[in-house]
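hi! just following up on the protien thing from before. the input was this:
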Amino acid sequence: MNIKPVIDHDIWKSESFLNSHLPDNFLLSVFIYALIAWAVTVLDMMVPSLSRIMRANGHNVFEQGRYINLVWGVFAHGSISHYLSNMMYIVIFGSLISGYFGHRIFWFMLFPAALITHGISLYSYSPNTTLIGSSGFVFIIMPYWIILHYLSTKHNDGLRRGLKTAGFAIMMLYPMSFKPTTSYRTHYIGMIAGIILGLISGQVLKNDIRRRNIEYCSEKTVIRDTGLFHNS
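and the predicted 3d structure came back as:
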């Protein structure tokens, strides 16, 4: 016989499993990604002959059929500051996605989407235009996380949650400045990909999300009712 869990109304309206502790290995994927990106960036800057061979431009990728250059292009960065700015967002949002929804999503859904985004954007430029950097990946994982966070907390207070999500999305996704060397086209393609993947994942994971929310809020209710929960 199934026993229906007891959940306090106030806890259900204010809590979600995203408030639970992240697993110990939540940084593993982003650490590996940042390490690979650092190694490729250093090689790209320090070894010009290798950089020319692996350069991600339309000529090398589409005319010569060297699609491996897309991988190089996503990992390589034009400067240390370029690398650090992208890694900051990848570490923050990538670790949350990996920690709460799994490392496989990071590597087998979002990273391939970054390669495809890089390729689509590159195809739209002239054959000699080189495109490097993980900004397409950044603009995939940000809306992806925002959508999954929204769907994982949809049982909470609706208006407040909606306003917070909208404000955060605008702050994160709207460019504060415009630079001629930045491929905003890649950002927008990545953003569209992240939104689509987020909505698809939300449908695929909706039963699992609900189950985890019920388990978490039920546990919170039990802890509170048994006097083990203390506000700090």
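The domain at 25-222 is CATH 1.20.1540.10 (Rhomboid-like fold).
The chain has one domain: 25-222.
cheers
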